[in-house]
Amino acid sequence: MSPKTIAFLGATGGCTNACLAHTLKAGYHAIALARTPSKLTSLLLQQDGITEEILASQLRIVRGDAMDVASIKKTILLSGSNEGGSLVDIIVSGIGGTPSLNMDMRKCLFVPTVKLDNPHITEKTASALVSALQEIYSERKLNNHDQDKPVLACISTTGLTDDNEPPDVPFLMRAMYHTLLAEPHKDKRKMEAVIDANRDLFAGTVIVRPTLLTGDGKSTAGKKKGRQKLRVGTARKPALGYTVDRADVGEWIFEEVIKTGGKRWFGEKVTLA
């Protein structure tokens, strides 16, 4: 059975915004959590095929913070409240902090590193989502019935493989990943750990690990489609590559999780390059 309503966290981000645009154009209903609804609306109207009429009829925007449990509950419940509302079918999370380039002193050398305005944002969002679902299930006295639970598709990053997994980053990029991107990757690793520890709260989880992101997430009719060249792998057999377009990541999540329900990828950490 096709999903009816999809919730989006971090929908102003390029990958998630592209996925939301595909979702709306396909006729699905969506609920998006945004700190600044006007920013989200503006970004969506820049996407090819999105109109004011589509937004008015198919999208509900919840003003709030993704690290706030109450805001998430309003987003993942169809009624926007605890009483009488059903849960959404799928949750797509693309939360991330705002990066800035800094120079850190290490062993008498200045080393460039990426810092985040909130270095724990993805971990805190995952924890808030877990708490929101736990509260909802407790209030409704739900048992472990998968049909009552949403699917989660969460955007992470390559470069987080365990020691027993093959590297998912090309050799020439590994030094950069371990130094330049150490802080954001630490946050993503903790986010993945929160999700892995609470898989029973979801009908299924799909962690998407794109490589170095390019583009702004906008997909236009005249733009050459790149998804045909997208390389897809898993943590056990990763797809190696140097970059991936945000628009292609968003389209992949739409095609493989929202349209199909995502069962093929449940429990996987999917690499995209």
| CATH topology (level 3) name | Rossmann fold
Low-confidence stretches: none
Mean pLDDT: 88
Helix content: 25-40%
Helix and strand run: EHEHHEHEEEHEHHEEEEHE
Radius of gyration: 18 Å
- Give the spatial strand order of the biggest sheet: 3-2-1-4-7-8-12-10
Largest sheet: 8 strands, mixed
Q: How many discrete structural domains?
A: 1
Note the total helix count.
8
Proportion of strand residues: 15-25%
CATH class type: Alpha Beta
Number-wise, the strands total 12
Distance between the termini: 30 Å
The named CATH superfamily: NAD(P)-binding Rossmann-like Domain
Briefly note the structural class of the backbone. Answer: alpha/beta
CATH-defined architecture: 3-Layer(aba) Sandwich
Shape: globular
